[in-house]
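Team,

Forwarding the record for the chain on the shared tracking sheet. I've put the sequence and predicted structure together so nobody has to dig through attachments.
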Amino acid sequence: METSGAAKAITLERQRPAGGLAGAAILAVLALALLAGTIAAACTEPPQAAQEPQVQEAVELPAPTLSMAIVRQPSKVPEPPAPSAPAPRYELTDMERELLESVVTAEAGGEPLEGQMAVAQCILNACEYKGIRPREAVEVYQYAGACPEPLEGAVEAVEAVFDEGQTVTDEPILFFYNPDRCSSDWHESQSYVMTICCHRFFKEAPHE
């Protein structure tokens, strides 16, 4: 009996290592299965979608209108009007101009421009002060009756006095005569103003 008990003990001692190895093997298999399951789950899990960049919503601007386009256009500065020709001091007809140019030529054609302008000024003053036209002034004041072809200086003198309003003197001269050609007590009875070349010029004497 003792021999049989000892034999069982020996048999049990020999069986323990085998059972321990089997348990270890089972644990290893379970660990491998757990690891494999974890790996499979990681592989089968869908990848997270990449985070899309945030796009700022565009602000819709109102479409430009015709009025807006007009306002935005730079205002055009209007060009100043072209300066108009100044009105003549005394407007002449063509016939009156030709008459005056001939009279100035006959009275002072050989004198400087200043002398010719003084003759034209006498006729202008007669027209303005007496309210008469040039032809009547020539007849009333008995300016030269001859009508020669006008010289350039006479044309310029009439234009300067009647058109541009230039004057030789501020005095209202009306009369003139050439002492080298004649004497005139009547002219000398008027108010003397000046002498230009061969002509003496007078304004009307004050009435007593």
